[in-house]
Input
Amino acid sequence: MKELDWANLSFGYMRTDYNVRIYYRNGAWGELEVSSEEYLNLHMAATCLHYGQEAFEGLKAFRGKDGKVRIFRLEENAARLQSTCRGILMPELPTERFKEAVLKVVKLNERFIPPYETGASLYIRPLLIGTSAQVGVHPASEYLFVIFVTPVGPYFKGGFATNPYVIIREFDRAAPHGTGIYKVGGNYAASLRANKKAHDLGYSCEFYLDAKEKKYIDECGAANFFGIKDNTYITPLSTSILPSITNKSLMQLAEDMGMKVERRPVPEEELSTFEEAGACGTAAVISPIERIDDLENGKSYVISKDGKPGPVCTKLYNKLRGIQYGDEPDTYGWVTIVE
Ligand code: PLP
Ligand code: COI
Output
């Protein structure tokens, strides 16, 4: 294989050697299958195509200085996929099966796991879709679970650097009792216009307020929000945001650093009080926020006065990355080493 330009990878798709698949038929999950085919053979009346019976996940594998490969919190992704399945009436894939599939696909594509020094990682993308042919709106009887992997670099330009965000009031991503808490494709379709508008205006990403009152912070694009002030880590409590595994980890790390952690509704005006803030997620890791503009209200909340990541974001980022790459002790058993 031609040596990849690991250090300059973007967050994009690259063909790797294998993907893995498990079919659900006659009420049961089948054996794990290995494929090198990038395409799926789908019935045109499959429920995933018409009625959005589609769930996905995102997690990463990291190569350490010691050469070992570590996967971050994969049981949490299995649990979130199960929650999504309950949300859109798909059969739940047991955690052990999820784990078996993730380990297999990572091992099969070992040569695509970026070297330690590059700061890149292997993105793991599980997908679960309803496949049986149907016209009526009800759940499918057959499903396909697939995982592909692809080496990735930073999601936002510049990696660990501050970025500007913009509040988009015109389009909602998710309703208070809708599917925002699940990782279903429909949420991302609903986010495309807001995302495009933010990019067209020169921002890094769109920022959502709660859809009902437009008063509280929800999340930023495909990442959760957190703010820092008075030695406190503050992150929104909302029924329309995705429960981020990165955010959950950062809450623990913040507590370990002696900070208070608050999970509660965060009114927009509070943005003016934060000493630091960030967007966090598997793809985003921590992306420190420079400022958040609310164009319709004519407000600009400048968070990073000098345009640099703040000390708390930096400490959290280093600690999280340290655990992921194996440079820091894995106190909570978050990491699965690929043997
Ligand atoms: N919010 C949304 C809408 C996302 O798509 C993601 C990405 O998975 C996140 C938040 C961050 O979640 P996690 O930290 O589990 O990757
Ligand atoms: C992730 O952080 O894993 C995501 O899913 C973000 C995005 C690419 C949808």
Summary: The mean pLDDT is 96.
